[in-house]
Structures are given as C-alpha cells and as structure tokens.
Amino acid sequence: MSDSLPLGSRVFVDTSAYVALVRTADGQHQQARHIMDRIVGAQSRLFITNFVIAEIHAFLTSGSSVSSCCPT
C-alpha cells in the first residue's frame, strides 16, 4: 500500500484484515489498525465479497483460529 490513498477511493478488505483488527493478540493487529486508520483518513469506501462475509461469520461463530475458518 502506498503512503497515501486518493480521497474517496474504494478499498477491498479481505477476511484476514478484519480478523487482525478484532484479535488484539494477532501478529498483524497493529499493522491492520494502522492501515485501517489510513483508509478511514482518506475517506475511502470499503467493499467486501459475500465469500468474505461468510468467512468472517465462520470465524466469529467458531471461536477458533483463522486457519479453521479460512483454509488456504
């Protein structure tokens, strides 16, 4: 991601970013927060797919790790 985003740009955010945002113990938590702050500061519009919504739902309801809901 470059240092600046065009004002009002559209940004796709994948499951792992949302998971890192909500799990403070996640190794990418601080980086995810920093990037999300930049996205919000640029007044960007977030978009996700139905598949990402399903993965997030699986993660939130499983109570386990990202790898269990989102295999690679």
Structure report:
With 72 residues, this protein is mainly alpha-helical. The chain has one domain. 53% of the residues lie in helices and 8% in strands. It is built from 4 helices and 2 strands. The protein has a two-stranded parallel sheet with strand order 1-2. α1 crosses α2. It is flat, with a radius of gyration of 13 Å.
Termini, distance in Å?
A: 22 Å
Class from secondary-structure proportions = mainly alpha
Order of helices and strands: EHHEHH
- Uncertain stretches of 5 or more adjacent residues: none
Please work out how many helical segments DSSP would assign.
4
Q: How are the strands of the biggest sheet laid out side by side? A: 1-2
Query: How many domains make up the coordinates?
Result: 1
Number of strands: 2
Major sheet: size, sense and barrel closure? Answer: 2 strands, parallel
Rounded to an integer in angstroms, the radius of gyration calculated over CA atoms is 13 Å
Rounded average pLDDT: 85
Strand content: 5-15%
Global outline? flat
Helical residue percent? 40-55%
